[in-house]
Amino acid sequence: MFQNQLNEINKLRNQPASQITVTVSAKNRINVALEVQYIVTNAGWYPIYDLRAKDTKNPIQLSYKAQVFQNTGIDWEKVKLKLSTGNPSQGGTKPTLATWWLQIYTPVSYSNAKKKYKSSPAPSMASKDDYNSGELSKEEDIAATNVSSYTQVTETTLAAEFDIAVPYSIPSDGIGQLVDVRNYQLPATYKHFAVPKMDKDAFLVAQVTGWEDLNMLSGNANIYFEGTYVGEAFLDMQNTKDTLDLSLGRDNKVVIERKKLKDFSKRNLIGSTKKEEFVYEISIRNTKKDPIEISLEDQVPVSKDSQIEVEVTDAGGAEYDVTTGKLVWKINLNSTETKKVTFKYSVKYPKNKIVSGLY
User: Fold this and answer.
1) How far is Cα 39 from Cα 41, in angstroms, rounded to an integer?
2) DSSP H helices in 17-103
């Protein structure tokens, strides 16, 4: 809110004054109409998405929107918008590798030294074609649900362009304004995930496919499920996976309990070695009316010391990753059904040592 007030004040200060000089040459004297195209650095846009799931049986509804801003000092009245996924501010020169030198490092003692690092991502810039891109304010007489039907998508070699035929009035105030770009329907698979060691609740996740060809940029998304706002997520379009995982929130109708079975957990001394055995049991109950598929995750410790030996004596039917120590179960549960999984592991280490993080 305070930033918006500052933008309003700054609008009245330092109004830009520009002059364009155009040199024209022609073989013969002729009357022509000239159209000037130029790029401004203080106008741009970034994406915002609405993802709506009606239930776990229907596809995801994706609303692709743009938050557009400009502060050029000129109000753009009823202009046609063209949004490009290209960013001219990033430059197009390919990088060149310099020689990678190695040398012996000699440590230097610094007292009261402080280092500050600053990083600011380059904004997504909008090219301006006769005021055809910049900030938008939606005309009230045009319904939001109809705007996306006017959008034409053009794919070039390096970017994609969204041409919206509906005109917009764009004030020069630096305040982002929302415009609907496109609406899509995406296939989705709904599954439950749980990590009871960290959180006893199960989470419903929509695994969305078919997004690769939508010319989407990384940005925030508002998630809605069954007509209720669930929360906000960040969509990373640099993700190399072909599936996007969207968390739709906690499902309290899936009851999970994780406990250590003390009667089966042991601690033994064998010569100069101490051996501890751990047994855990995880119980899952589905109180929903429909069957579910749940991915259950847990873990065993991983040793970074040759004196510590970890052995998984029973993975309980889970997929076990030796490198990370992760255990994963894929479980199908019918309505009102309960299933239990048990896993066991042991840790051996010198009896005169203390192992940190062991429990």
Assistant:
1) 7
2) none
